[in-house]
Amino acid sequence: MGNNKYKLLVIEDESNILSFVRTILEANNYQVIVAKNCAEGKLMYSSHIPDLVILDLGLPDMDGLEFITYAREFSTVPIIVLSARTQESDKVSALDLGANDYITKPFGTEELLARVRATLRNNRYSAESGALAGGKYVLHDLVIDYDKRMVMIANNNVKLTQTEYNIVAYLSAHAGKVLTYASIIRTIWGSSDSGSIKKLQVNMANIRKKLGSKPGENKYIINELGVGYRMCDENE
Ligand code: CA
Q1: Ligand 1: centre distance to CA 88 (Å)
Q2: CA–CA separation, 108 vs 66, rounded Å?
Q3: For residue 230, how far is its CA from the centre of ligand 1 (angstroms)?
Q4: Ligand 1 mean position to 90 CA, how many Å?
Q5: If 102 and its partner were Cys, which of 81, 166, 194, 204 is the partner (CB 3.0–4.6 Å)?
Q6: What is the pLDDT of residues 130-140, one digit of tens each?
Q7: Which residues have CB under 8 Å from 90's CB, separation 6+?
């Protein structure tokens, strides 16, 4: 019974949020186990080995970031962080420590389910390493041909610089996941200096223009303000 269900661990101290999340997930055929503080979360994690963890950052006994550090010592389990709107720096810390994604409170049913699905899917991609090397990435009318290093929209070649292409390819290889500014800069330029963020923003502005996105429109790439960028997922 339920052996083929994904097992999700939810670590959250606020009862109303915990029961909201639990109800939604169980209604959508996930198995849910819960913990109300960080210590209990670690215990539940090691005894149940869940497929995904949903983690509140503000826990009564310890900072939720400590759970990420703990889990990443021995596990690649996907972790989605729950955080308040005002805590941009916490989201960045969580992602840089190895969290896979975050959801900003307050959130709705659809957003929660979309992030859970995308994170489980993303983790499958990286488990089948190389599945995205070579081949193509398709998102609506956008096609990225990794072998030819070409980006096309509605069959028209989009002329990107090498750097712009590298950024788009990196984002698409992690579609659905927020990549922090620091992680993009490290991957594209290898190191960072005081001008790196500006350099990234200029490249992103050019990319968005070339992809035909109007200001404020998020057709392919979403700017997660203060955190990083996310390539839209095909199922979003
Ligand atoms: Ca809390």
Answers
A1: 16
A2: 26
A3: 26
A4: 13
A5: 81
A6: 444 457 888 88
A7: 57, 65, 81, 83
